[in-house]
Structure formats: C-alpha cells, structure tokens
Amino acid sequence: QVQLAASGGGLVQAGGSLRLSCAASGRTLRSYDMGWFRQAPGKEREFVAGIGWGGGSSTYADPVKGRFTISRDNAKNTMYLQMNSLKPEDTAVYYCNRQGYSDYWSWGQGTQVTVSS
C-alpha cells in the first residue's frame, strides 16, 4: 500500500517561492510517471505538473508554465515542485500522485499553499 506525503507548503507573499516535496512509502516511485495536483476551495482537483519515471520529461499546466519546476530523486524516492513567482491564484492544497494511469493511489493529506496579495 502506497502512502504519499506532500510537505513544504506555507504562507507566502505574492512573488515569493516555495519548494514542495513528495515522499513515498510502501512502494518505489522510480517505475512511475508522477505528478503534482492541486485543489482550491470550491474547485475540483486539477493537474499542475508531471514528470516521467526517469525524470527526463515533464509537462506543466498552462497557468504554471515558466514559474514551476518539477523534479524527482528516485534514489530518495522523492519528488519536488519548485514554485516561483507565486500568485494568489496558486492558493490551494497541493497533492502528489502517479500521473497518466487509469487510477490514482490514495491521495494523502496534501500540503496547503497560501499566497497573499
């Protein structure tokens, strides 16, 4: 059973930066394409960024292109999301999960990111 734990969120002013981490237990992530997702209050969960199993390919949702960078360290079984130039509309709970498969693992608790204007 996979357990995913996103961390690194917090309160930051617009224009600031945060680095999120996703640690996994119960399964190695090295064989899976992974992604970051977010859910703002009153909205559905949405895709933010994805990275191939080897780390050589990545995709981004249009709203975060050029500001966010996804990366992974398979040796540490961990994935990251560097978020720069944060905007108030980036405020959400951020989750990590495998990406591009027919189903998701259990979502875990996520990490809250709040960007003040």
Q: Structural class of the helices, strands and pairings?
A: mainly beta
Quaternary status: single chain
Poorly predicted tracts of residues: none
Q: How is the largest sheet built, in terms of strand order?
A: 2-10-9-4-5-6
What do the pLDDT scores average to?
Answer: 95
Shape designation: globular
Q: Compute the gyration radius: what is it? A: 13 Å
Percentage of β-strand residues: over 45%
Alpha-carbon distance between the two ends: 40 Å
Outline the structure in words:
The protein is mainly beta and 117 residues long. The protein has strands at 3-7, 10-13, 18-25, 34-39, 46-51, 58-60, 68-73, 78-83, 92-98, 111-116. It contains no helices and 10 strands. The chain has a 6-stranded mixed β-sheet, with no helix packed on it. The chain is globular. The mean pLDDT is 95.
What are the defining features of this structure?
49% strand, mainly beta, 117 residues, 10 strands, four-stranded antiparallel sheet, globular
TL;DR of this structure?
The chain is mainly beta and 117 residues long.
Topology:
Elements (H helix, E strand, L loop, with lengths): L2 E5 L2 E4 L4 E8 L8 E6 L6 E6 L6 E3 L7 E6 L4 E6 L8 E7 L12 E6 L1
Parallel strand pairs: 2-10
Antiparallel strand pairs: 1-3, 3-8, 4-5, 4-9, 5-6, 7-8, 9-10
